[in-house]
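Recall the central idea of this unit: under ordinary conditions, the amino acid sequence of a chain determines the structure it adopts. In this exercise we apply that idea directly, starting from the sequence alone.
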Amino acid sequence: MTQPAPTGQQAIKALFDLSIRFEGVLDALSKGFPSPIPPDQLAQMSRDFISLRHAVNDFINPPFVTSERVRDQLYSIGGIVKGHFVGTNDAHFNEYIAKDIIALRNSLNSEFCLGFAQRFYQDNIDVVVGPAYGEISLAVWTAYHLSWLRPDRPEVLFTFSQPEEIEVLAPRESENEGAILKHGHMRVFQGEKLILRRSGFILRPDFIKAVRGKRVLVVVNVFTTGGSAKRTAEAVVAAGGIVVGIATWVDRGNVPLEYLGVPRFESLLTIQSQVWTEEECLKSGPCSQGIKPNTDLGHGAAFLARQKQKVS
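Accordingly, the structure predicted from this sequence is:
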């Protein structure tokens, strides 16, 4: 069975260990003693040394993350699935990007975010922002790689945006334990809150200070309508930040740059998926043909539940 290639850190350690063994051989030869290691083992050590040097070089100077590389990686782990799916914004589409499968693999998160950094490292990025909560890891990895690629600049920071929430109703602490407040059909018990989540995104006060006057890169995993990225960029601008661009792993929405309101948009991979609004799907898409959406991936189950309520 072929052994997997060592990671950069493993290669550095192995190279260090191998160099110590070579030093022992050179020390013996310099003193007129025969090599303590047989010639065939020395030849293998030499081949290992060259292989490890290449691994270390790739770690220090990683190859450019291409669209072909991203596509191959996604297909190899089942990250791209064909069928009928419903997204968080009620859009229907014929290809699903299994973000959760990718998110479970730190190596892929790191490699794809290296692709972001390679495309923006010359733009003097100060802060990377991702929408909460799924894209926080993207912001972390992208900031890390940007800092690695630009050791001449201050460390790149990361933060995240989140939906604006307003507390609508909550029992006061002075209320008796178990007290109930009613809001329509809702009942709010002691220790609970009724929260209104607005469509806009905001940054927390401490994050506002981090982005004010700074050059910011917004990162998202999959781009369909661009809503989360656009609202995050607007939150950064509202906080006084300068949005340099938006980057995504996969673009399947063909959203015009004018809609995003940013100077630059980069995607590692573009997929020409068919996308329908709910109304379009019911009229001329898979729904009109009686093809039910996938209920295991995406939000197909919630869509079917809504349709069932409308009928009843």
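The longest helix spans residues 8-30.
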